[in-house]
Amino acid sequence: MSKAAFFLVSPIKHPKGMIYVMISTGVALRTTALAFSAALFLAACSSGSGSSGSGTSSSTAGAAKAGSGTQVTVTETEYSLKLSRNSFTPGTYTFTADNAGKVTHALEIDGPGVSDVKTKNLQGGGMAALTVTLKKGTYELYCPVPGHKQLGMDTHIKVS
């Protein structure tokens, strides 16, 4: 028979004295490997959820093919939005959020046929694009980061 290797895990206090828990090396290695695999899996599943960088978001109604249409830059700073154009007709537009500020910002668009279309959160210097199809009506563009809209990161555009 082969000898099993054991190592001390931890002493545990017990009313009648200390109890020392011992686990075989094989069990410890399997447990460690399982925990590491679970952590790696969770990290892979959660990557890309709201950090800086660039990206395209088009997940809800009103979203069109990414990168198509008229380009509009929305420069975000503390605490304002500045659009590269102020005249809009119905059609497809790609709004590029450019965080020129120092704190985290994002861009969300709501209006006729467009509901809750937004970028991920962008760190200072980050950019992301939203491609939407605008119909006649009024649209609201704002920063959905809590408190930023109330501080002035909110504008409306009229499509006619």
Roughly how much helix do the residues carry, as a percent range? 10-25%
Report the mean per-residue pLDDT as an integer. Answer: 78
Strand content: 35-45%
Largest beta sheet: what is the strand line-up? 3-9-6-4-5
Element-by-element helix/strand order: EEHEEEEEEEEE
N-C termini distance: 86 Å
Extended strand count: 11
Low-confidence stretches: 46-63
Give the biggest sheet. 5 strands, mixed
Instruction: Output the radius of gyration.
Output: 26 Å
> What sort of overall outline do the alpha carbons produce when their principal axes are compared?
elongated
Name the quaternary structure. Answer: single chain
Helix/strand/pairing class, anyone?
mainly beta
Structural features:
11 strands, elongated, 1 helix, mainly beta, 160 residues
Task: Explain how this protein is built.
With 160 residues, the chain is mainly beta. It is built from 1 helix and 11 strands. A hairpin with a 2-residue loop joins β1 (6-14) and β2 (17-24). The N and C termini lie far apart (86 Å).
Topology (SSEs and partners):
Elements: E1 6-14, E2 17-24, H1 25-46, E3 56-57, E4 70-77, E5 80-83, E6 91-99, E7 108-111, E8 114-118, E9 127-134, E10 137-142, E11 154-159
Parallel strand pairs: 3-9, 4-6
Antiparallel strand pairs: 1-2, 4-5, 6-9, 7-8, 7-10, 10-11
Quick rundown:
The protein has 160 residues and is mainly beta.
